[in-house]
Write a structure and sequence with these properties.
By secondary structure, this protein is an alpha/beta fold. Helices cover 33% and strands 29% of the residues. The radius of gyration is 23 Å and the shape is elongated.
């Protein structure tokens, strides 16, 4: 399990204390806060946060954008800029370091929570873009867990939640939809066989007329999805005249 640790870089002590209190109420772990460039770099090195809440204006020669530039060059973690200044010049300069979110002060507890969750989800989803996805990061309770995709047997929906069943027999429940989950999985290895279930082809034992046996579980399958599944699993044909 991974409890997300947030690093806060804010030069106004009262605001920093308020942010930290809010983060703790939201059940995040919080690193030792920093108030300037040098302290921010030291905190990142020592505390190794999973995400930075970074005030742009730090009251020194080097500001939050300088911190972000250093982070982008040396670390892999998402950044959320915090600022009361929304002028075009600041926005344009901030955009160059490609923050994962931009939160204007004052912001609410809900604003902060939404920004953090979206930043984490998008960052780690895009991190493996362009390469074979090997892990799936999901939130369960107050923690995140990284699951090996090859160990997922099936995913079953229940209202606004899904249960991810692993080969170990241990299910993980997260708030999501099947459509959202399917986007995060290799399409050649997983198929949605009906309104409620996604299966991993590797664990298919038998495909019958109107059902499929996955590991030791039987699921109903529609005719359309059965055709799609069979086509996916058929080996590619050799071109005519090939050896």
């Amino acid at each position: 399990m991974l409890r997300v640790k947030i690093g806060v870089v804010e030069d106004e002590m009262i605001i920093a204390a308020t942010i930290i209190s809010t983060l703790k109420k939201l059940k995040y772990s919080v690193a030792e806060p920093a108030s300037n460039y040098a302290a921010a770099l030291e905190m990142i090195e020592n505390e190794q946060p999973h995400l930075l809440l970074l005030d742009i204006n730090l009251g020194g020669q080097k500001d939050g954008i300088d911190v972000a530039e250093y982070v982008r060059a040396n670390y892999n973690l998402p950044i959320i800029f915090l600022t009361a200044n929304s002028d075009i010049t600041t926005l344009q300069r901030a955009k160059l370091v490609k923050p994962n979110a931009y939160l204007l002060k004052p912001f609410t507890k809900d604003d902060l929570f939404a920004s953090i969750e979206i930043a984490i989800s998008n960052y780690y989803e895009n991190y493996n873009e362009g390469s074979k996805k090997e892990n799936l990061l999901i939130r369960t309770g107050y923690d995140y867990v990284s699951l090996k995709i090859r160990d997922i047997v099936f995913i079953e929906s229940n209202d606004n939640y899904v249960s991810v069943q692993l080969i170990s027999g241990k299910p993980f429940v997260t708030r999501s939809t099947l459509s959202e989950m399917l986007k995060k999985l290799p399409e050649n290895d997983f198929t949605r066989i009906n309104r409620s279930v996604i299966i991993n082809h590797s664990f298919i034992k038998k495909i019958e007329t109107d059902q499929v046996v996955v590991a030791d579980t039987k699921f109903a399958i529609t005719s359309k999805q059965k055709l799609e599944l069979v086509e996916k699993m058929e080996p590619p044909r050799s071109p005519e005249g090939g050896s």
